Amino acid sequence: MEVLNKAAAKCILWVFFSCLHVIALRSQLFSRLHRSPDRDDVLISYKTFYFDQKIDHFGFIEDGTFRQRYLIADKHWKQPGGPILFYTGNEGDITWFCNNTGFMWETAEKLDAMLVFAEHRYYGDSLPFGQESYNDSKHLNYLTSEQALADFAVLIQNLKTTLPGAQHSPVIAVGGSYGGMLSAWLRMKYPHIVVGALASSAPIWQFTGLVPCGDFYKVVTQDFARSGHNCDSNIRKSWKAIKNVSSTVSGLQWLSEEFSLCSPLKNKNNIFSFKRWLQETWVNLAMVDYPYEANFLQPLPPWPIQVVCKYLALDSTVSDYQLLHGVSKAVKVYYNYTGSSSCLNTSQTATGSLGFLGWYYQACTEMVMPMCTDGVHDMFEFEEWNFQAFSDECNSIFGVRPRSEWVGTVYGGKDIASHSNIIFSNGGLDPWSAGGVSYNITDSLVSIMIPEGAHHLDLRYSNDHDPPSVKAARSLEVIYFQEWIRQSKKKCQLHRPSSP
Ligand SMILES: *[C@@H]1O[C@H](CO)[C@@H](O)[C@H](O)[C@H]1NC(C)=O
Ligand SMILES: *[C@@H]1O[C@H](CO)[C@@H](O)[C@H](O)[C@H]1NC(C)=O
Ligand SMILES: *[C@@H]1O[C@H](CO)[C@@H](O)[C@H](O)[C@H]1NC(C)=O
Ligand SMILES: *[C@@H]1O[C@H](CO)[C@@H](O)[C@H](O)[C@H]1NC(C)=O
Ligand SMILES: *[C@@H]1O[C@H](CO)[C@@H](O)[C@H](O)[C@H]1NC(C)=O
Ligand SMILES: *[C@@H]1O[C@H](CO)[C@@H](O)[C@H](O)[C@H]1NC(C)=O
C-alpha cells in the first residue's frame, strides 16, 4: 500500500473490425430512469447492454471473449440516420461518467442524437477475466488503450449494422480526461468509424519529452495563488512545518488528532504517505474547482479552493501549529463538506468510481506521464522525475516495466497535423491543461480554451453559475458537431447511385 500511495501522486490521480467475426450478444438487462445527481430537474434514462468482445483484437492465440457493458439513450434520436454521440469510456464505472457528462444529454436534444456510453475494458462491469482480471500481469496483459479503441470501433460497427436506422448515422466520439485522449485517438486511428471527436481536458501531450514535467503542478499552484491571500505560500511552508512538528512523539500525536486521521501517524513511512495524501488533495481540488456546488470526486461547495484558502490566509508570523491547524481546516473542506465523515483516511482521496489499480497498471505500461516539482515555481517539495525508480516500482508491483516511448510511436506525439475533425478543449484551472493541446493545429484540429474552467467543465450539465467562457465553448463545440454531421451526410449522398 505504501508503494501505491507513493505512486498515486506520481502518475495520475483522476483524479478513459469487422462485423462478421463478432456475434452480438445484445441482451438488454435493465432500463434505468433516475434523476441526475447534479440536476434535480433532469431525468436520465438509458438502457444497459452487453456486447461480446474479443479479449485480444491483435493476436490469434487468445480467442476468448468478454462482455463489454454499454448504455444507450435514444429518447431524442431521429431515425434513420440521426447522429450518435459515443462516449469513449475511461478508467472507471461507465454509469459514473454517464452521470457526469450532462453536456451529451443536453446536446442529444439539440441534434436529435442517440447517446452511447461504452465502458472501458477492465473497469466497472467489463472485466475480461471476471474477478481474476487483476490477479497478475498475464491477466492484465490486455489492458491497453489500443485494445480499448478496438473495442469501441468493433462496437460502433456492430451498432451501425444491427440497430435499425443507424446504418448511415454519423458517429461523434466524446470523452473527458483519459476518455478524451481515447476519443481523439479513436478519430485518429479509425477515421472511417467516427466523423469527429471532442477531447475534453485530454492531456495527450503529458508524455515523455512533450511538455516540461513541472507544468502540471505549476497550474495547481496558480489556482491556489489566485484564490486567497498567502494561500500557495502557506501550503509551500506547510511541508517544513509537518517536518518540524512530527519530529517529536507528542507533535506526531497532535498532528494525527488535529487532522482526525483514522490511523494515527507512527513512523517516517506514515508521514511520507500523509504528505502524499495532502499533495493529492490539493491536486484534486484544482481539478474540481467548479463554480457551483458539485460532487465529482467529493461533494464540494462552489469554488472550493476559495473556501479552502480562507483557512490558509495566515500571515508569516504564525507558529507551525497554527499553520497546520489552518491546513487541517482546509483539507476538511474537501473531505468533510457534508459533515458526515468521522475520520480522514490517508489511503483515500476520492469517492468517485475510479479504478485506481487499473490506471496504475496503465501508467506502468503505456501511459507514463512524467511529473516533477521544484518547490519554487510550485508549492510542493522538491522532487525530480525519476524514470528508473518508477520503472522499478512498476516491476515490483506488477512484474512489468513501462515503455515510455511507445505512446509517441503509436499516437504521434506532437506530429498530428495529418488528422482532422478533433476539438481539444481545456480548462485554464485544470492541471491537466498543461499536457493538453492549447493551440490550433489546423482548421479542423482546434483547441478551445476555457480560462475559468476546471477538469472538463464543458462536459458537465449547464448551470446558472457557468462562466461565459464555458458557455461559448459548448456552443462552438455543437457548431463543429453540426459541421461534421453535414460533411458526412454530403459524403453519403455522393456515394449513393444517382437516380435515372
Ligand atoms: C449515478 O446517479 C444515480 C442517481 O443519482 C446513482 O443512483 C448512481 O449510483 C450513480 N452512479 C455512480 C456510479 O455514481
Ligand atoms: C484471483 O484473485 C482473487 C481476488 O484477489 C482471489 O480470490 C482468487 O483466488 C485469485 N485467483 C487465482 C486463480 O489466483
Ligand atoms: C521549522 O523549524 C525551523 C528550525 O527551528 C524554523 O526555523 C522554522 O521556522 C520552522 N518552521 C517552518 C515552517 O519552517
Ligand atoms: C465532520 O463534520 C461534522 C459536522 O461538523 C463533525 O461533527 C465531524 O467531527 C467532522 N469530521 C471530521 C473528521 O473532522
Ligand atoms: C482506508 O482506505 C483504505 C483504502 O480504501 C481501506 O482499505 C481502509 O479500510 C480504510 N480505513 C479506514 C479506517 O476506513
Ligand atoms: C481556434 O480556432 C477557433 C475557431 O476559429 C477559435 O474559436 C479558438 O479560439 C482558437 N483557439 C485558440 C487556442 O486560439
Lay out the secondary structure.
Blueprint: H1 2-10, E1 30-35, E2 43-54, E3 65-73, E4 84-88, H2 94-99, H3 102-111, E5 114-118, H4 137-140, H5 145-162, E6 171-176, H6 178-189, E7 196-200, H7 215-225, H8 231-245, H9 249-258, H10 268-287, E8 294-295, E9 299-300, H11 304-310, H12 320-335, H13 356-363, H14 387-398, H15 406-411, E10 422-427, E11 445-450, H16 468-495
Parallel strand pairs: 4-5, 4-6, 6-7, 7-10, 10-11
Antiparallel strand pairs: 1-2, 2-3, 3-5, 8-9
One 2-acetamido-2-deoxy-beta-D-glucopyranose binds at residues 131-132, 135.
Terminal Cα span: 72 Å
| Total number of helices | 16
Average pLDDT number: 91
Question: What's the architecture of one domain, going by CATH?
Answer: 3-Layer(aba) Sandwich
Would you identify the regions where 5 or more consecutive residues have pLDDT less than 50? Answer: 1-30
Shape summary: globular
The H/E string reads HEEEEHHEHHEHEHHHHEEHHHHHEEH
Major β-sheet strand ordering: 1-2-3-5-4-6-7-10-11
Rg, Å, rounded: 23 Å
Total E-strand runs: 11
**Percent range for helical residues?**
25-40%
Estimated share of beta-strand residues: 5-15%
CATH topology of one domain: Rossmann fold
What does the largest sheet look like? 9 strands, mixed
CATH class of one domain: Alpha Beta
Structural class by helix and strand composition: alpha/beta
Which compounds are bound in this model?
Answer: 2-acetamido-2-deoxy-beta-D-glucopyranose
* Full CATH superfamily name of one domain: Alpha/Beta hydrolase fold, catalytic domain
